[in-house]
Amino acid sequence: MRGFSDRFAEVVGKSHTAVATVEVLDEHGNVLAELSVHAGSVTADRTQAQMRSFEVEVADPTGDLIPKDMTSLLSPGTRLRLRRGVRLEDVDLRVQVSDSAATWTVTTGMLNSVEVNGSGSLTLHG
């Protein structure tokens, strides 16, 4: 069973742009913010207690996203949803990695730590 749709397989064979975003969620799953992704990875290991982990670099040119206390948007324990897919000229098509029946690539997890990079970005670990 593969983790993407026939439409996605068709699209990646053509000219496209990769798309990745991080959504910051509240306790009810509502999106509080969508962050731009520079780079990142999600690792899955079924032998670990925490099956998936992630490391994602997001833009923070103003420094406003740096956590200052436990009420900050990116404080440890914040729930994040990571998405990836492709952008065509007229539409975003994203695929679900963890659920092949869905149309989006999604990994949801808790933020464990934030690394402040000197280049106007943050690396999120979860």
Explain what the structure shows.
This protein is mainly beta. The chain has one domain (6-125): Thrombin, subunit H (Beta Barrel). It contains 1 helix and 8 strands; from the N terminus they run H-E-E-E-E-E-E-E-E. The chain has one helix at 6-12, and strands at residues 17-25, 31-44, 52-59, 79-87, 92-94, 105-110, 113-117, 121-125. Strands 1, 2, 3, 4, 5, 6, 7 and 8 form an 8-stranded antiparallel β-sheet that branches. The longest helix has 7 residues, at 6-12. It starts with 5 loop residues before the first helix and ends with a strand. The model is unreliable at 95-104 (pLDDT under 50).
Largest sheet, in brief, is: 8 strands, antiparallel
Tell me how many strands there are: 8
Q: Terminal Cα separation, in Å?
A: 26 Å
Mind telling me which CATH architecture this is?
A: Beta Barrel
- Total domain count: 1
Helix content: under 10%
Choose one word for the global shape.
globular
Category by helix and strand content: mainly beta
Strand content: over 45%
CATH top level class name: Mainly Beta
- Total helices: the number is 1
Brief rundown of the structure:
This protein is globular.
Features of the shown structure:
Thrombin, subunit H; mainly beta; 126 residues
How are the SSEs ordered, and which strands pair?
Elements: H1 6-12, E1 17-25, E2 31-44, E3 52-59, E4 79-87, E5 92-94, E6 105-110, E7 113-117, E8 121-125
Antiparallel strand pairs: 1-2, 1-4, 2-3, 3-8, 4-5, 4-6, 7-8
